[in-house]
Amino acid sequence: MAENKNTAYDFSLFEPSEKERAEGKRKDNIIKISEEQLEASRRKKYNPLTIIVSVLCACVALSVVGTMISSQAKLTELTAQITSAKKNLEEKESTNVQLSMKLENEYSLRTVEDYAKNVLGMKATEAHQIDYISLSEGDKAEIQQNVKERNLLDKIGDTISNLFS
After folding, report:
1. Cα gap 92→85, rounded to integer Å
2. pTM (2 decimals)?
3. Which residue, 22, 19, 41, is CA-closest to 31?
4. For residue 123, what are the contacts with CB-CB under 8 A and spacing of at least 6?
5. HEC string for 4-55
6. Are the C-beta atoms of residues 17 and 27 closer than 8 Å to each other?
7. Would you say 12 and 1 are in contact if contact means Cβ atoms under 8 Å apart?
8. CB 123 within 8 A of CB 117
9. Which residue from 20, 30, 125, 127 could staple onto 16, CB 3.0 to 4.6 Å apart?
10. What is the predicted pLDDT for the residue at 46?
């Protein structure tokens, strides 16, 4: 078998050696074990640390998912409240515009003038009814005092007080 040295693979390495051929029969590599040992070897053995880490990771993942769901629910509620508040605001603004127009219409200058003429019987002022007041002289202030006769003792007291001051 060693004659074909120029081939890509040398399969002669996998053939039994001369010594093995001379022996003729191989030894069996069979190990005999009981059923209990067979079942124990088939069961997968778990490391307690791996189990604890796996459970903790699952708890963290569930917490994150639960928090995200809770946040989305709160966000949805707040969005609904905002939408409701905006709708309410728009209704109030519309009512405000309507009332402003109604107020402006009811109390316009023309309406007030018509009411004064027709209901109250008032008339517009005419040019001869207007009196103009001129304040070009300025304001004057006069103080009036009641001057009473001073007696002799008051005059002496004033003279003494003027000396000391």
Report:
1. 10
2. 0.40
3. 41
4. 117
5. CCCCCCCHHHHCCCHHHHHHCCCCCCCCCCCHHHHHHHHCCCCCHHHHHHHH
6. no
7. yes
8. yes
9. 20
10. 81
> Per-block average pLDDT, block size 10, for the chain (165 residues)?
61 73 62 80 82 96 97 97 97 95 84 88 84 73 72 86 83
Residue found by looking up tokens 């905006």 in the block:
86
The number of residues in the chain equals 165
* Both tokens assigned to 93: 């603004």
Q: What does the block give as tokens for 31?
A: 């190990």
| Separation of CA 24 from chain center | 88
- What sign does the CA torsion over 132, 134, 135, 140 have? negative
- Calpha distance 83→91 (Å, rounded): 12
The predicted pLDDT at position 81 comes to 97
Report whether 6 contacts 12 (CB < 8 A).
no
What is the distance of C-alpha 2 from the center of its chain?
84
The per-type count for the chain, helices as H runs and strands as E runs, is 5, 0
State the pLDDT at residue 113. 87
CA pair distance 31, 48, nearest whole angstrom: 31
Give the CA diameter of the chain: 173
Q: Is 13 within 8 Å of 7 (Cβ atoms)?
A: no
